[in-house]
Amino acid sequence: MGARAKRPLRIGRFAVMAILQAARAKRLGLPDESAFSWGLNRAIFYAAAKRGFRSGPGEQGPHEARPEAKQESTYYLGDEMAYRDPASSEPRFTIGGEIQTKADFDRQVAARFGTERNFRSAWREAQEIIAGFDEETLGSRSRFFSQVYKPRRDELATKWTEEYTVAPAPAKQG
Known about the structure:
A hairpin with a 2-residue loop joins strand 1 (73-77) and strand 2. The protein has one domain. It contains seven helices and four strands; from the N terminus they run H-H-E-E-E-E-H-H-H-H-H. Helix content is 48%, strand content 9%. Residues 1-7 and 56-70 have low confidence and may be disordered. The protein is an alpha+beta fold. It is globular, with a radius of gyration of 17 Å.
């Protein structure tokens, strides 16, 4: 039996949420590193919420700090709260005791775009979308979700997948 060809990476709702949330955070005043941390953190949070914050046997859910985790503090972006690592000079956000960093964002989100150039194009588009909303809308968790993210999530996922992902070359037959 021959090797199966790999499917192209798809830009899904998780990536769309992470990018739009990062652009929102940047617009509301967070520096780049913190904005990307916020974006990934919120994408993880909403993905877990969608699944009902389920954990496997012996695992802890996103709200349960692991015993070895550093003490977390709360941070508000508008009316939305997240936990942050108090040891970081600029806010870095945490879930389950794990800090979401720019490197994590790059690995879990930006890498799906194939190249830095592709990601930067999508990032600019997200910032343009966010620029079209007032700070009151962006500061509201529910309005951001219902007016900014939800109406665009599938459109952006499809568009960015078509524009920025390329199917890998078929596996060579041996």
